[in-house]
């Protein structure tokens, strides 16, 4: 069965947080966010395990899908919904072996070759980007643009997640181009009220989805 993702996918990036991650996660859940990923590139294995365990035990019982970035072993131990791996991490196939069936495996891709390779695996969804210029990564890959989403949409039935530089003003355009979901970090986490900004996204994406279906 094809995975159906929420339109909004929030990346809870520790480098962007100004409040405790659990507090931020709860505010986002209260605002209606139903898909969150924990990303902490600077954490030790122990720190990542402890924060992921807190977030998993907080979010999953509320019906929020929770993923761990990079680390399939941590995601499995804390009983997260799944793991998201990049090009330098475990392959989707190896991550699946760690996670088992019934858990989500997402893969980041940055060009056509990587996308086609991911589409041939058991990955549940494929992220593409950066769609726009992004400031959340120190060495970002080249921008792929909206047209790339339109192109890869025809290559797979797997959900496509757009990531990188997405703002509330650009999100609807990304959905109209064929993305199933938009992954957002800084435009929500750096907002004066992240919960309010998340609600803006949810309302806007629901409207874009309705317009696309008409």
Give the key terms:
single chain; 9 helices; 8-stranded parallel β-barrel; 214 residues; alpha/beta; TIM Barrel
Q: What order do the SSEs take from the amino end to the carboxyl end, as H and E?
A: EHEHEHEHEHEHEHEHH
- What sort of overall outline do the alpha carbons produce when their principal axes are compared? globular
State the CATH topology: TIM Barrel
Number of strands: 8
Strand order of the largest sheet: 1-2-3-4-5-6-7-8
Determine the fraction of residues in helical runs and give it as a percent range. Answer: 25-40%
Rg, Cα atoms, Å: 16 Å
**Strand-residue proportion:** 15-25%
Could you name the CATH class?
Alpha Beta
Low-confidence stretches: none
CATH homologous superfamily heading? Aldolase class I
Structural class: alpha/beta
Largest sheet: 8 strands, parallel, barrel
Alpha plus pi helix count: 9
Question: How many domains?
Answer: 1
Q: What CATH architecture label applies?
A: Alpha-Beta Barrel
Mean pLDDT: 94
The first-to-last residue Cα distance is: 24 Å
What's the oligomerization state? single chain
Describe this structure in words.
The protein has helices at residues 21-30, 45-59, 72-77, 92-99, 112-119, 146-153, 171-176, 186-189, 194-213, and strands at 8-13, 35-39, 65-69, 82-85, 104-109, 125-128, 160-163, 181-184. It is α/β, with parallel strands linked by helices. The chain has one domain: TIM Barrel (Alpha-Beta Barrel). It has an eight-stranded parallel barrel, surrounded by six helices. α1 (21-30) links the parallel β1 and β2. α1 (21-30) runs parallel beside α2. The longest helix has 20 residues, at 194-213. The two termini are 24 Å apart.
């Amino acid at each position: 069965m094809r995975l159906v993702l929420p339109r909004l996918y929030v990346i809870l990036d520790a480098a962007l947080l100004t409040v405790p991650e659990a507090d931020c996660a709860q505010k986002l859940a209260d605002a209606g966010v139903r898909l969150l990923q924990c990303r902490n590139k600077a954490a030790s294995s122990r720190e990542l395990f402890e924060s992921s365990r807190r977030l998993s035990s907080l979010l999953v019982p509320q019906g929020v899908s929770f993923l761990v970035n990079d680390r399939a072993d941590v995601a499995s131990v804390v009983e997260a919904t799944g793991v998201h791996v990049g090009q330098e991490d475990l392959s989707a196939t190896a991550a699946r072996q760690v996670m088992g069936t019934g858990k989500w495996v997402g893969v980041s891709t940055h060009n056509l070759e990587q996308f086609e390779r991911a589409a041939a695996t058991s990955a549940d969804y494929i992220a593409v980007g950066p769609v726009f210029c992004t400031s959340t990564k120190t060495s970002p890959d080249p921008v792929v643009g909206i047209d790339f989403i339109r192109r890869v949409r025809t290559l797979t039935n797997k959900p496509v997640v757009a990531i990188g530089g997405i703002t509330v003003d650009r999100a609807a355009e990304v959905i109209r181009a064929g993305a199933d979901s938009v992954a957002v970090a800084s435009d929500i986490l750096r907002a004066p009220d992240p919960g309010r900004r998340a609600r803006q996204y949810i309302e806007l994406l629901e409207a874009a989805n309705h317009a696309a279906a008409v």
